[in-house]
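Service request form, structural biology core

Requester: graduate student, group of Dr. S.
Request type: structure prediction, single chain
Budget code: on file
Notes: please return the result as structure tokens.

Sequence provided:
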Amino acid sequence: MEKAIYLQLADGTCYKGTHFGAPLVDDIIAEVVFTTAMTGYTETLTDPSYYGQMVVQTFPLIGNYGVNTGDFESNGIHMSAYITKEFCNAPSNFRCQMDLDSWLKKEGIPGICHIDTRALTKKIRQEGVMNGRLTMTEPKPEDAKMLSDWSIKNAVRSVTCKESYEIPVGVTEHHVVLWDFGAKQNIARKLHALGCQVTVVPAHTTCEEILSLKPDGIMLSNGPGNPKENLAIVEELKKLCTHKIPIFGICLGHQLLALANGADTEKLKYGHRGANQPVLEHSTKKIYITSQNHGYAVKTDSLPECAKLTFTNLNDDTCEGISYQSFPGFSVQFHPEACGGPHDTEYLFQKFIDLMEGREF
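Core staff response, request fulfilled:
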């Protein structure tokens, strides 16, 4: 028997839908965001950058090809709840290992379906990202007052690895330290494919501890939350930048590297989440289609003299990439390791290799 479930937004709007996935024992409060990705829902669900958020899929049918563990970007689901128009409980694909509903139950993640996701997405686009509450009890309008004060806390600390570990490779060309702020697994896969031995370290790792590993390069991963919450990481990054070791930052790593070099960040109205974000590379005037998942951005007008704007988002003119003149480092807001998503900017991993081999900078 289908059970009614309610999504109440901070502005008082309420959506009645059908419950699926794990039982909702207690009400859930989280930030409600949307993604326009048309495929890759398994990768979306396992992306640690969605910690503290309920995710709306704008594509109407989710779950049609089931779930395969080979598509996971982390060791589980980190978002708070899942929102779809429809979900498929009879998937058909030769790789399918389980259906979406069973997986959500296993992971303890509730979902709501059979709501107007187009109307919900339009509201977020017009009014901005807002908090929401998922409840099995029909909410009262006055209940929404409590939602505005809620915020995501300890995001990076909640998703980073607990201790360092190595991902060895047969023939090692370079040793890369992957600083894990909520890293997607495909970052390590891309480095592996280029012959890199990868040592993954937790977010609380210090500059001295990273230097003791004698890396050829440092990769700053993606991750969730407000970049300005990570003051200790920013301070350690400032120290690392003085050692002239090649650094490559992605998404949250891009923002943290900018903060460490004197730039500022801001929260976007509704963020960039999807696999079709166009960016302009200034040096070549080429346009690339990129995968993105972030709610904050580096303020272009805050870039210091040592930083050069390399990519710009063609939808809203926000900063999408920076290179640094004072040390061999660069960063991008989008995901060049996109999975699922376009592979247009995979060449940036080779640029990182070139930095480590001294062919650039």
